[in-house]
Design brief:
Elements: E1 12-15, H1 24-30, E2 36-39, E3 42-44, E4 48-51, E5 61-65, E6 71-74, E7 80-83, E8 86-96, E9 103-106, E10 115-126, E11 136-142, E12 144-150, E13 153-155, E14 161-167, E15 170-175, E16 178-180, E17 185-190, E18 193-199, E19 202-204, E20 209-214, E21 231-237, E22 240-242, E23 246-251, E24 253-254, E25 257-259, E26 262-264, E27 269-274, E28 290-292, E29 295-298, E30 306-308, E31 318-320, E32 323-326, E33 342-343, E34 346-347, E35 353-355, E36 359-362, E37 414-418, E38 421-426, E39 433-439, E40 444-450, E41 453-458, E42 463-467
Parallel strand pairs: 1-2, 2-5, 3-6, 4-7, 5-8, 6-8, 7-9, 8-10, 9-11, 10-12, 10-13, 11-14, 12-15, 13-16, 14-17, 15-18, 16-19, 17-20, 18-21, 19-22, 20-23, 21-24, 21-25, 22-26, 23-27, 25-28, 26-29, 27-30, 28-31, 29-32, 31-33, 32-34
Antiparallel strand pairs: 35-36, 37-38, 38-41, 39-40, 39-42
Amino acid sequence: MCVPGLPLIATTLNVGAGKTYPTIQSAIIQAQPGDTVLIHPGTYTTSTYIVEKNGTFGVDIVIRGVSQTSVIIEGPSSSMQFVDCSHITVENLTMRGQKGNALFFDDGGTIETPSRYITVRNIVFEDMEGASNVNTNFLKMAGVDNFFISRCTFSRGPVNSLGIDLVGCHDGYIYGCDLQGTISGGIQAKGGSQFIDIYNNTFVDCGDRAINIGGNTGLPFFRPADATFEASNINVYTNTFVGCRAAIAFAGAVNSEVINNTIVDPSAWPFRILQESVDASRFEPCGNNIIQNNIIVFRNTLNAHFNVGPNTAPETFTVSHNLWYNSDVPSRSNENIAPVNETMSLYGEDPLFTASPTDLTISSISPAVGKGLSTTLPSRDKRNKRYASPPSIGAYEGATTTSVFENGTTEHRSITRTTTGFIVRLPNDGQRRSCALYDLRGRLLRRFELDGGEHHVPAGLQEFLVVE
């Protein structure tokens, strides 16, 4: 049966020296839904600028390098920018030496028509050159909904650079990425960003704020235009942080969760509670957020547990079941606590990492084992091991396998609807399963594959998921 709107034959458009297309842009312009723009080994220095290029229901236009290490996208400014595009996948590249945003997706200022269904995966971003007095980012998204960022590496950025900068973005996830040496910070979601999961990532020396939930956005750049928050419903699960000035900043953030993370040696504060967009007639004060089940190991030079700024509502935060350990003077682990009401937390007990800071797993004898508060999410730790009940504190479960139920090779799957999409639990049997996302008219929006374990699939309330 022929389905209208879907291509009968997918085409590979080859890019490179001696290939059909000399530049990436020339190939993308010709690509149709289902086609793959295949970039062959080489160093590409010509900028790519694409406007209103769209895949279609479940059929992306794929821009793919033959291999991550042999396909280099180098300078000069923004190497790739996609404006008002949808159903686009970019993968298997190395991007370096840019003076502007290396990879940029935006809605062209048309707030009512965001870019949608954007996938970025398996890309190395490194050694950005940047420009003086200009904010540059390895990966920037402005006005993008339904996005997927996974297994990317971000390293060695200049001053005023972020690994990932999201402005007015919604319904997305950032998973399994490594961020190191991004000077200003790692990941930022602001300007009305909402319903984003940040999980299983690694942050090392990521500057001022490894994750900035919120920020300070000019009013014309909010999406939606009447948003009453910088960020809402941002979930930060099972990440590890080493050596950042602050691991997590809540800046005009509401209804967000920071649960089961491990934080080591923050130089100033583990957490900041700030309000940088200050207009009481419009913006909600930073509040109603959750900080729970986190391990925080710090030195005696730490400024305080929390940095709390004016115009915030720290009393509305739920803070509990964390483990705080001053590695220099354990007896002082509960000093310098900011004006938040923290309950059921542990102080002064060494979490007994396997080999800090290179291996932050814990064993069954760690005091963090069994001391967390049971929650619906996350249900699995950073290495995809199921949390016990009650769970360990931190990004890794330390309970023995006999006390943690695992599906193993037993065929068991479940799909649970949430406000942000679906929680999919699949057996860990080494098989990848095909999934399809549909709208209520039965139109296929996207096909993708999932490994065993638990996944969050962002989706709108008018969409449904089928696991085949």
